[in-house]
Design goal:
four-stranded mixed sheet; about 325 residues; 6 helices; alpha+beta; six-stranded mixed sheet
Length: about 325
């Protein structure tokens, strides 16, 4: 057998065939951040909104000839609640040597290493914004600790938050929270419908919601109505044979009590390693939410002091819910 003295990158003089393709396959869809309205720019680090309610209806009448009692304070239930802004920042940079190599064609797939680093950091920032908005972290005002805004999973908490809690009149109703999902069983369409019944009591009528859920939550919904809780078939779906397509998707759950449009998220309720929780979800009236941008996502170049170009990307915003009472969630 003939032998060769060639070893890659060491001897022999043979060039390697390194293709000019750089592939990044990571989740980048951010449905919540894309849908939520962008509110006015905050004037300070703590942003508040006002909530109020109506008194219970009555079937009592009044006596003939009775006079008004004069007065009646209609502002007694009005209360303030809010959240702090979130500050995200990340650095990027390349060495002077590596930047020159890329500009002269010596780097595969990248002809501007610094420009690539800047664009990549901004893409990572967009993912972090979505993960923060769909997170379960409570807010913090900063100072000696990180500045964080309250995530949607924490906003939709039926119990009081640890810091600046949402007043009890405006918290998410316990009936609108589906808990124990995946621990041990999948949740059912009856549980989702009961959550919508609870929310109907808030609005007095049927509303449209956005369900943003982890993979297992949406997988549960995709199986709604096909099988019962025991796994027995309830009805069969017939597909056209000439289309060669099997549909296993429920994009809209519609009942007498609410309409929910369903989509998955790879950023919901992330853990400390940045991994999403497949058994978490949110039932949102998107009109009640807004992102108030304190400082929009941007990149800034820093002076090159000789070692190579560098910069940073930064964004500051607050996620505010005008009334958590009008939303629900799904938790493990």
């Amino acid at each position: 057998m003939n032998t060769t003295a060639y070893a890659p990158g060491i001897v022999g003089g043979r060039r390697e065939d390194l293709r000019n393709v750089l592939t990044i396959l990571e989740p980048e869809e951010t449905p919540f951040t894309s849908m939520v309205r962008k509110g006015p720019a905050p004037k300070s680090t703590f942003i508040e909104t006002l909530g109020d309610n109506l008194k219970k209806p009555t079937n009592k009448g009044s006596k003939e000839g009775t006079d008004t009692k004069r007065g009646g304070n209609k502002a007694t239930s009005r209360q303030r609640f809010g959240t702090y802004i979130h500050r995200w920042m990340d650095d990027y940079g390349v060495s002077d040597v590596q930047q020159i190599i890329s500009e002269r064609g010596g780097q595969a797939a990248v002809d501007d290493e610094y420009g690539f680093a800047k664009a990549k950091t901004l893409r990572e920032g967009k993912r972090s914004i979505e993960a923060t908005n769909l997170g379960n972290q409570d807010h913090n005002g900063g100072d000696d600790v990180e500045m964080t805004t309250r995530g949607a999973m924490q906003w939709c908490n039926p119990s009081a938050q640890a810091s600046n809690p949402v007043p009890s009149l405006f918290r998410t109703l316990p009936g609108a929270v589906i808990s124990g999902v995946g621990n041990p069983a999948a949740f059912t369409e009856d549980q989702l419908n009961n959550a919508l019944i609870s929310l109907k009591g808030v609005y007095g009528g049927k509303r449209t919601y956005q369900i943003i859920g982890g993979n297992q939550v949406v997988n549960n919904i995709d199986h709604f109505s096909r099988t019962d809780t025991g796994g027995n078939t309830r009805y069969k779906v017939n597909e056209m044979a000439d289309e060669h397509e099997i549909t296993m998707m429920v994009s809209v759950f519609d009942s007498s009590f609410g309409r929910a449009e369903v989509q998955t998220s790879d950023f919901i309720n992330i853990d400390t390693s940045g991994n999403p929780d497949p058994n978490s979800g949110l039932i949102l009236n998107i009109e009640l939410w807004h992102m108030d941008l304190f400082d929009a996502l941007h990149a800034m170049d820093l002076p090159d002091l000789g070692g190579g170009p560098s910069g940073y990307a930064k964004v500051m915003w607050a996620l505010l819910c005008d009334s958590p009472r009008g939303n629900g969630k799904i938790t493990p």
